[in-house]
Specification:
Length: about 270
């Protein structure tokens, strides 16, 4: 494996797989800002095997594994060869798609991975006049200074294997874009929502109410603030862990519906 040194190098590696003109399957979706940070921190490595490109992003105790390949057959053959050299590593791969195109999941299971978690995509369509929500004065835009506290809360209460915790720099960027909503009481952050606006779609990325602040309606107030800020979009999209029944019920209450899109988190533990 070699360190990725630039976004341009990464793009060239992906293009080399496309140049086979046999097909294209991947679980790697380019994000120039995020991936530039990975490259800058020397966390991203690549290796080319057969008709496949494999990427490893180094985390605190495991590697996130990404693939770019031509066909499922090529992926299975090339991944088997790749894994021989990484038997001592904990590898985590996400396979995303609908029921018809998640066949790559079986490739990983056949090669010794186990399913660790699964997430389902839900969405809420804006098809009626925007509801006017009562503004909670304790809900404000999070600042760059708040990003460090949010980062600590994410690492404390989210599962790094399944929920792709952002870097501190990403959180600071959300704050600069006013896409970090926080609930503050006596200077303490009791909850937050992180979201993105892309065209006519709003993406809910992270939502948390600190355990000490739960039962006070803070989660609903934060979500209402998100809906208010998303009044001009066509839909709100989010991913939720299948086991997080409280969150699922909350999303259903606010009008979200299931989509037939799934994210399977697969893990191969070190030998």
């Amino acid at each position: 494996m070699k360190k990725v040194t630039s976004i341009e190098q990464l793009q060239q590696c992906i293009a080399s797989v496309r140049n086979y003109r046999k097909g294209f399957i991947t679980n790697f979706f380019p994000d120039p800002f995020r991936h530039s940070l990975w490259i800058e921190k020397e966390e991203l490595s690549f290796g080319e095997t057969g008709e496949s490109l494999f990427l490893l992003r180094e985390n605190s105790f495991f590697y996130s594994l990404f693939y770019v390949s031509t066909t499922l057959e090529a992926l299975k053959s090339d991944l088997a060869f790749f894994l021989v050299k990484h038997q001592g590593d904990i590898l985590v791969a996400d396979v995303v798609g609908n029921q018809d195109n998640v066949a790559a999941r079986q490739v990983f299971l056949d090669l010794g991975f186990q399913q660790y978690a699964s997430l389902t995509r839900m969405s809420r369509i804006n098809n009626s006049p925007a509801t006017v929500y009562e503004k909670n004065p304790r809900i404000v835009n999070g600042s760059v200074a708040d990003a460090g506290i949010i980062y600590e809360l994410l690492n404390q209460y989210f599962d790094p294997l399944a929920e792709q915790i952002p870097l501190l720099e990403e959180l600071e960027d959300f704050a600069k874009k006013n896409q970090l909503i926080v609930y503050k009481e006596n200077g303490e952050i009791g909850g937050f929502i992180i979201y993105e606006l892309q065209g006519k779609t709003s993406y809910l990325r992270y939502w948390l109410v600190h355990p000490e602040f739960r039962g006070k309606g803070i989660g609903s107030a934060l979500f209402n603030e998100l809906l208010s800020r998303s009044a001009d979009v066509r839909r709100l999209i989010l991913w939720v862990m299948d086991t997080n029944h409280n969150a699922i019920n909350m999303y259903l209450h606010f009008g979200a519906e299931y989509e037939m899109m799934f994210n399977y988190v697969l893990i191969k533990r070190a030998i």
